[in-house]
Amino acid sequence: MKNREDTMHIRLINPNTTASMTAKIGVAGARVAAAGTQVSATNPDAGPVSIESHFDEAVSALGVLDEIRRGEREGADGGERVDAYVIACFGDPGLLAARELTTAPVIGIAEAAFHLATLISTRFSVVTTLGRTCIIAEHLLQNYGFAHHCRKVRAAEIPVLDLEDDGACALGRIIDECRRAKTEDGIGAIVLGCGGMADLTDEIREAVGLPIVEGVTAAVKLAESLVSLRLGTSKHGDLAFPRAKTFTGRFDYLGS
Amino acid sequence: MKNREDTMHIRLINPNTTASMTAKIGVAGARVAAAGTQVSATNPDAGPVSIESHFDEAVSALGVLDEIRRGEREGADGGERVDAYVIACFGDPGLLAARELTTAPVIGIAEAAFHLATLISTRFSVVTTLGRTCIIAEHLLQNYGFAHHCRKVRAAEIPVLDLEDDGACALGRIIDECRRAKTEDGIGAIVLGCGGMADLTDEIREAVGLPIVEGVTAAVKLAESLVSLRLGTSKHGDLAFPRAKTFTGRFDYLGS
Amino acid sequence: MKNREDTMHIRLINPNTTASMTAKIGVAGARVAAAGTQVSATNPDAGPVSIESHFDEAVSALGVLDEIRRGEREGADGGERVDAYVIACFGDPGLLAARELTTAPVIGIAEAAFHLATLISTRFSVVTTLGRTCIIAEHLLQNYGFAHHCRKVRAAEIPVLDLEDDGACALGRIIDECRRAKTEDGIGAIVLGCGGMADLTDEIREAVGLPIVEGVTAAVKLAESLVSLRLGTSKHGDLAFPRAKTFTGRFDYLGS
Amino acid sequence: MKNREDTMHIRLINPNTTASMTAKIGVAGARVAAAGTQVSATNPDAGPVSIESHFDEAVSALGVLDEIRRGEREGADGGERVDAYVIACFGDPGLLAARELTTAPVIGIAEAAFHLATLISTRFSVVTTLGRTCIIAEHLLQNYGFAHHCRKVRAAEIPVLDLEDDGACALGRIIDECRRAKTEDGIGAIVLGCGGMADLTDEIREAVGLPIVEGVTAAVKLAESLVSLRLGTSKHGDLAFPRAKTFTGRFDYLGS
Amino acid sequence: MKNREDTMHIRLINPNTTASMTAKIGVAGARVAAAGTQVSATNPDAGPVSIESHFDEAVSALGVLDEIRRGEREGADGGERVDAYVIACFGDPGLLAARELTTAPVIGIAEAAFHLATLISTRFSVVTTLGRTCIIAEHLLQNYGFAHHCRKVRAAEIPVLDLEDDGACALGRIIDECRRAKTEDGIGAIVLGCGGMADLTDEIREAVGLPIVEGVTAAVKLAESLVSLRLGTSKHGDLAFPRAKTFTGRFDYLGS
Amino acid sequence: MKNREDTMHIRLINPNTTASMTAKIGVAGARVAAAGTQVSATNPDAGPVSIESHFDEAVSALGVLDEIRRGEREGADGGERVDAYVIACFGDPGLLAARELTTAPVIGIAEAAFHLATLISTRFSVVTTLGRTCIIAEHLLQNYGFAHHCRKVRAAEIPVLDLEDDGACALGRIIDECRRAKTEDGIGAIVLGCGGMADLTDEIREAVGLPIVEGVTAAVKLAESLVSLRLGTSKHGDLAFPRAKTFTGRFDYLGS
Known about the structure:
Chains A, B, C, D, E, F: Belongs to the HyuE racemase family. Chains A, B, C, D, E, F: This is Aspartate/glutamate racemase family protein. Chains A, B, C, D, E, F: InterPro entries: Asp/Glu/hydantoin_racemase, Hydantoin_racemase-like, Iso_Racemase_Enz_sf. Six copies of one chain form a homohexamer. The first copy, chain A, is an alpha/beta fold. The first copy, chain A, folds into two domains: 8-108 and 218-248, Rossmann fold; 110-215, Rossmann fold, CATH 3.40.50. Chain A is 41% helix and 16% strand. Chain A has helices at residues 19-32, 54-76, 95-100, 109-120, 134-144, 169-184, 201-208, 215-228, and strands spanning 8-13, 37-42, 47-48, 84-87, 106-108, 124-128, 150-155, 189-193, 212-214, 247-248. A four-stranded parallel beta sheet of chain A has the order 2-1-4-5, with helices on both faces. A four-stranded parallel beta sheet of chain A has the order 7-6-8-9, sandwiched between helices. In chain A, strand 4, helix 3 and strand 5 form a beta-alpha-beta unit. The two termini of chain A are 34 Å apart. Mean pLDDT of chain A is 94; it is low at 1-5.
């Protein structure tokens, strides 16, 4: 069993390439981390600056996998071993693939938020950015088994990068949508549907008056939980390391 | 946001009245708790010495609720406030009722184990004590949304209190059943289906060679997670404090 | 096969301790009972005066179990054997535990109403008392398998004990909510979501113009049905009598 | 509310045209009927002599509808009014269509057996005739909402009309299959999957040692229940009488 | 593998007996058929002139089965073999029974439309004729597995035969309902819920500005697909030819 | 409506980079294509040589998207327009993302096979390559809505590239597993779970004696169907073209 004095290292991977969002996510994660937990935040060099579609998500998954591989290499090369990874985009891009690449736990922020929301309420709603991404949350809810715990997936109709602007406009729209959820949905909690909202949680909670579950912070705590329990991704069965094989072309670096 | 130096206090409630099991659960919980977390373990004065049926469970729920009320009173009376509660019986007896009584998080060990198991494997099986209690796990899996993540609920056919005996017989049967699950079920992890197995996790893991998710330890970490995130049981909606009312007879102490 | 001349005895257990409601339930049950059926109505000495939360429900389950045990004892002691039990609270508190205690059938009024509603309509809605109890009905619908037969669980926002007042206010609000259900939900029937509405069925039906399925009366007929068919609670498998064991403290009377 | 002295009349419709089976069904129904209940059993003039396929079922539905219409006419013509109908084939052929034709309740024997089985056990299995009809039971279980209550649909591989033969061969095979279900399925009750087994219930129960739920008898009691409660098929919404229209050709008698 | 030069023959069966609708369906089917596909459209001699209830549907199933048998006979008698059948009523009446009668594929227009709609959108709504038939579509969606792909089943409240009138009134109401679906339902496509709308698809699509999936045309293409792939109805298991048996009375022609 | 003389062009995208498999897939697709359909088969330059894990799948999705973009560009540049795309790997990698990039239909071979299998049987099983990929099929079955139509996902435990070897060993193992499915699963059809089996369909069908549904061929026909019906991917709602944005690093070519 892990010694309490041990430190652990959680790597937050922002799947998009907007450094300001990465920094924000890192700050949010670090704020809730335990004393012995080191939080580092990275993003891929290559990929979309925001993730607002299945397409953006599919491309960002590559970046996530590259970052997992980089994290694993760092540990293997005598650097700071990564004890757990967080995929900090609400679509959990590349989650199962990432799990195959490591014995460490890998947590998506959508799943993290859903899990914790069910522990403090019987029903919740999700408030996300653009309407077109609601389907992503709906699919995840169904895959993970939480569909009947969620009353409604709502969109504030804010492009993700508007969350990087200083103007309070995005915040206001999110609060408005959360209030509608509170009034209309018969819920006990709200899940914020974008990693870029990680710094807004407190303001939203105070304005709305409901527990607000935010995924980055939720995932950091779940990652810490698993590491403390020495529970890593199972290498028995379908999350085992991928079979060694050739990759061609620009992806040849992924092969063996 | 919670200051990292803050301590927190997690109360483990063993719903049965077997003190040796309470002690064992307390030790298991304390072993995995963070440095700043105080773990206390209690059990009700009154109730079944083990929980192996719906009937045992229904009676034990009263004990759980009494213990929650006691925990709340201690805090109110200037004692050590309880920051989170764990219900340490795999049927999660009284879970939703307990949540109504407090703003603190309340976590059941079955739900805790199910949640964490889905984070490290795509499919798991449950190994519990007596065959007659399998239905309890099946109902919980369905209610929580994890039915399709679980391949099979298996019983080692051990009465709960046999887990308190020193003879390794119970352990052997659990390991045998876990190995069958590993071989036959197409799974990546096993969930132990009884709080009384909390001290056996390491031995089982080594003997079986699969990640073993144990509920008491899982629940402690989830409780810590929620407290760190300042996420308590929602008091908006259906988990609000019960309406004040009269209780009659021996339950009059519950009334207002 | 049961001789038609035989009489049978159905015990209605009102899980709350409000005698006027018990009486009302007894009258409602007796009105629909067959000629040879004796209906007796009881309530526990101890427990909540009304059931409007998970907490109230958990406590009331103890009372239900005590009443089942009393019923069984009466028969064993040469008194009038109870042939079937009805749990007359819409949350069906203690249902599975109660079934473990007897070979007689035990029927909850929520399940009874749901079953019969599906036999006369393709879709129904539930109209219950307080909004906070809707979740209880939703959980039951899912557990029993009726979730997709029910369009909506609605609350008239009436505290249960208001149903004991003479003022027609409660009745009016229930009728209003039923009418909204009829207009908006695309349903063929309404299930009344509280045992305390058992005496209002006729008035509601006439005011609303839809079949109204009420649980107490439904459960009496299902109980008669099972007794006539000599179908009792299965003692093979997970509803067998609980294993004999010690109960401690004030619950020691439950032990063996 | 129905006066207890009132009699009621339940019409059992055997959807196949084998008179011996109709008689057997009538006897089984009459044995369990209440003192005031008159049971009549009929079968269509035209249709399959047994129902062992979707095709047989579709044709038999016409016969069922003709019998419902005949029942309604008899009442309208001053004959004995039919208070409830039972469709006595385990596929519940024509059930929703039949409900449209009458304000009386219409009960299928498969649904009846499923409903009652869930009241006395947490899990049951079905033992039916031919393997090819298992899919019919599986579809019904899913439509009615009972899929997760049923462990397995099993076939004894007996053609339906073998149940009309005196040789005990069919009975033996059914008992064998029921015993396998008892041993292997983790169940508390068995549902017999054919109206032609209505006379075998007692023998099977004694041989197998489990509660055996038989649909004809179950449906009679549910029909009595609904009539006593004055709950008829809802005429509000999608089970209202069909719109008047022309039928052509040999079906012109169905038109208006 | 089928030679491309081969022709194939698809028989569209309009389950109602309105010849003008049969003709319309035949035209719609022929318009989308491949060059080598011969489309013939028939309707039974006997049955309802429109299908707007479970009752109409049950009767029409007989006509469907007669038409399948006629189609099979024509091929056997040296006439033009039918390579695939389409059941051109949105309730897919008699579908599984029809499949038992032939090795050719049999496609219902509701299932066909649902299948194709899921290939071009993540969520769709259905717009059908009368509100009372919505339940038929809901049941099919659930049976086929598409319930969570469909946001809403809507009715334009048009009797089926109004679709045969020249007045544009029906079209206007359908377009209005489709526009409401587009605005309110969060969908990517609309499924038209009646074979009688087959000639309106283009107009509706242009007016609404969404992909409109129509069942007759969808089914013709799926039928062609299966024939090209030499995939016929499986005769292994529960869709095998019905067992030979006697049918009595006016249905004796169905027996062997 | 599409003129029958029109030709159409279907692009088969093999998501792995093994040219021999691409060729095989192209041949299989062309064999079943209609006379007017041109089939071209491509694979990405870069990516895994076979797809046997979530990781392989995530990487291959990029190749799929590149190929979709290339197909779109070819049409825009005056080359042969692509009328529909098929993603020829049984995990349907990148399916929803691909749909966002085009108005043409995009069909995955897993979904195609599932859809057609439900049209010719009530229950099917899947036989795929490696056990570790079974979970991929299970997830797709659930997402698409076909989970309850599939009895079992089975693996022949053959690495994908063994399908490229001449030795009949792979074929033998597949046939063995299919025969086990036929004997044990209660099914009417088998779905082949790998694009690399496209050339084995006839041999398997003859050896097994069941309808064998193969995805590449199924997808070609569904693609033809949608093109003939002028049904393209909906651009209303969540499959609309992705919002224009910057992509960084090696993915900058994807940005606007």
